[in-house]
Amino acid sequence: MVEWRKRAVSNDGIGLAVFEVHGSEPDDDDRPTVLLVHGWPDTHHLWTHVAPILARDFHVVAYDCRGFGESDHPSGDATYRLSLLADDLFAVAEAVRPDEPVHVVAHDWGSIQAWEAVARPGAENRIASFVSVSGPSLDDLALWVRENVSHPTPRNLGRLLAQAASSAYTVFFQLPVLPRLFFTAVGSARLWRAFLHRIEGTPPHHVVVATTLRDDMVSGLRLYRANIRPAMTAPQPATTFVPVLEVINERDIALRPAIFDGTHRRVQRLWRLRTPTGHWLPYTHPEYLADVAHDFIATHAPAAGICATGHLDRARLFGMPTPLSGKLAVVTAGGSGLGRELAFALAEMGCALVLADTDLPRLDETARQSKAFGAQVSTYDLDLSDTAAVRSFAESVRAAHGIADIVVNDTGIIWSTSTLDAADDDVDHLLEVERGVIASSRAFGRQMVERGVGGHIVNVAPAVTSERSRESAAGAGVITFSASLRGELADRRIGVTSVRPGPHDSSRDDGPHDLSRRAARAVVAAIIRNKPVATMPSDTTPAHRVAARLSRIIRRHTA
Question: In what ranges is there compositional bias, type Basic and acidic residues (predicted)?
Fold first, then answer.
C-alpha cells in the first residue's frame, strides 16, 4: 500500500489537499515530478496502485480536486468551471515543483481539466508532458459532434448515436434534484465496488475510495452542470505544444474511441495507444498504465537519465488515426504472397512491423516497400518449422520491440495436391510448419496475457490450389487449433482469426496480385472486427461462386 504525505496548497482561497508519495521526494537525484489528477467520483486514492510504481523513478504527487475528498467544497456551479480547475492544477504544480515543469497523468474529469490547462499559451513551460486517460477535451468533443451533424452520413450518424447512448448518463447528472437523491441513497463504497466489478470486471479489492465517496459523488455533479453545456454551445479549441499521450480504451462505457479522431489537429506532438480496456484503467490495469506513463515521461525528461524503451516511438501520430495506429504487428512468411500483402496492408494502417522469413532478399524488399507507408520495419530470419527458433524469435521480439499487439502466423505454404497423393516429406514439412504456428501462437499469446490489455493472433493455413480447397485436409490443424485457442483467450480480450486462402488468394511471386491484396485487406478487416474467420475474396466473387457451383454439379453427375 502506498504511503502518502499530506500538505496543503491554496489557490485563490480554495484549499487543496496535496499528497506526495513518501520517499519519492526529489533530493540530490533531482527526480522529475509527476502530477496525478483524478476525475469523478474519485480522489487521490484512484492512484493507489499506479503511484508506487512511478515512484521508483519519479517524484509522485496527487491531489484531491476541489469538491472532492479532503479539499475544499466551494458552493455553486460556477466555482467548478474548467478554467478554475486548470488554475488549481497550475497552483499545485507551482507549489510542488517551482523550478521546473511537471509531467501530468490524468483520468476522466482530471484529464478534461488537464486539456484545459495544456491549451493555455505557454503551458509547455509548466507542463512537460501529459498522459490523457479516458478524458477528452470538451472543445474537441463539441467540434466532433458538429462535424458529424453537419455531414450526416450513415457512418457519422451511427457514431453520434453510439456516443449519445454512452453519454446519456450526463443528462441525468445535470438534472436539479434527482441525481442528488440517487447518489445519497446508493453512493456507498460497497455498491460502487460492485458496480465497477459488474461493468468492467474490476477486482473489488483494487477499488480504493475515500470515506467521503457519497459526498464526492454529489459534489462532483457540479462539474457536469458547470461545463458540458457551455462547451457544447461555444467551443474554444486551441493548439497545444505540450507532448500528449492519449490512452484510448475501446471498452470505455462513457467514451467511444471515435470522439478522439480529431485530436491530432490541435496537438503538435501526439502519441496514441489503443487497447480493448475499460474506463477505470488505474484500477483494472495499473501496471500497464504505469509502464506506458513511465516510458512517455522518461522520453520527455532526458536530463533525468531515466531509461526509456523507445517502444512508444511507433505510437507517434501525424494524421488521422486508424484503429491499428501505433500497434506492433509481427508477420511470418513476409517475403512474398499473402504475407507480403499483409505487411503492406498493416503498414498502411499505421502499424510498426516485425517481418520474418527464410528468403531474406525478398523479405528486405517487403521491408523497403513497407517503409514507403511510413512504417518502422525490422526483419528476422525465421524458419517457422523450427519450433525452438520460433520460441526464441518471440523472446527476441519482446526484448527489442516490446510485446506484439498483432501476430500473423502465415505458413507460407501452397498445397497443390490431395492429401493422399502428397509425398511423405511434404506431409512431414506441413506438420512441422503447423507445429510452428502453434508454438508461435503460444509464445506470443503468453506475452499478451501477461501484459493484460489484449491483442490479436492470425493463423494462416496453407493456400490450396485445388478448386476443392475448402474440402482439403491440408491446414485443418491450423483451423481447428485457432478455433479452440479463440475460445480459451476470449476472456483475455485476445482475438484469434483463422485464414484459409483459396486457389486465387495467395501468390508466391513478386508481381502484383489483386486478389492477394484484397485477401490481405479482408484479414485486416477481420482483425479490426475481431472475426473468427477472415472471409477470402475468392469466396465472394461471382466468378468463383459460379465456378464452384458448376464444379459441384459436374462432380455430382459424374460420381
Answer: 502-515
